[in-house]
Design brief:
The protein is an all-alpha fold. Among the domains are: 52 residues, no CATH class; 54 residues, no CATH class. The chain has 14 helices and two strands; from the N terminus they run ααββαααααααααααα. Strands 1-2 form a two-stranded antiparallel ribbon. Strand 1 and strand 2 form a beta hairpin. It starts with 9 loop residues before the first helix and ends with a helix. The N terminus is likely disordered.
Length: 250
């Protein structure tokens, strides 16, 4: 029997749940499977997970974390993510970090655990960015550490994270944990803004307005930010326009 006709037999089903990753992915594309009647997508994933499929275990974590096809259950999400993470799935490791960072109604956040999981995701720009945020602000028992914050923002920005690029630009603009460099700040704001970060365009506009005294470039970047929905940029544009009109009259 053929998969592309959405029909399977028991042999294919057994292969899928016992390690045939390609077949497992194929069968997941169907809402229902035929096995003496309808077999749910959830059952397929559960069976594959029981038989050691790490991706299936991670999928279960996702389902319970987001409430997809099941009732949302953070504790079950943690259970499946933990199993998957222990077997090397770094996406699960990252999700565990985020769960412990944010907490839930069923349990308090645990920043130490969050850091432990996020630090294992050395190639994840999102994990490195979140570590930067933790150390820039100081959260619960973790004290503010701007040196660490800059380190993690730098690593995340190197991997292309637009939020980290913006925050790292702030460090260079203000000379935090190092020499002030407006040039580096501008480069990072531009890079972040080019990826759709309206906050970076706002910060760049304000830099040109206040530091560089360049109303033309200030207006350019504030307009880009305002167009993207940034209300602060809209207010600054109105104020800039008003001030320029007053100067012309005087």
């Amino acid at each position: 029997m053929f998969i592309n006709n959405k029909i399977i037999n028991m042999n294919l089903f057994e292969k899928a749940i016992n390690g045939d990753e390609f077949l497992f992915r194929q069968l997941l594309s169907f809402e229902k499977l035929l096995k003496e009647g309808k077999v749910s997508r959830l059952l397929l994933i559960e069976k594959a997970s029981e038989n050691g499929n790490i991706n299936a275990t991670k999928m279960l974590g996702d389902m319970y974390f987001k409430g997809i096809d099941v009732q949302k259950d953070i504790k079950k999400a943690i259970k499946y993510y933990s199993i998957s993470s222990d077997k090397g799935n770094l996406k699960s490791t990252y999700n565990l970090g985020i769960i412990y960072l944010n907490g839930d109604v069923s349990f308090k956040r645990d920043i130490s655990k969050a850091i432990s999981f996020l630090e294992r995701c050395v190639n994840s720009s999102r994990a490195l960015y979140n570590l930067g945020v933790i150390y820039e602000n100081g959260v619960d028992e973790v004290y503010r550490n701007l040196k660490k914050a800059k380190k993690y923002y730098s690593q995340s920005a190197f991997l292309g994270n637009k939020l980290a690029e913006n925050n790292l630009a702030n460090f260079y603009k203000n000379g935090i944990e190092g020499k002030k460099s407006i040039k580096k700040a501008i480069t990072l704001y531009e890079r972040s803004g080019s990826k759709g970060n309206d906050k970076a365009h706002y910060n760049l506009g304000m830099l040109y307005l206040i530091i560089r005294k360049d109303n033309t470039l200030a207006s350019k970047y504030l307009k880009l930010s305002s167009k993207a929905g940034n209300e602060q940029a809209t207010r600054e544009l109105e104020l800039l326009s008003s001030n320029l009109k007053k100067r012309k009259r005087s």
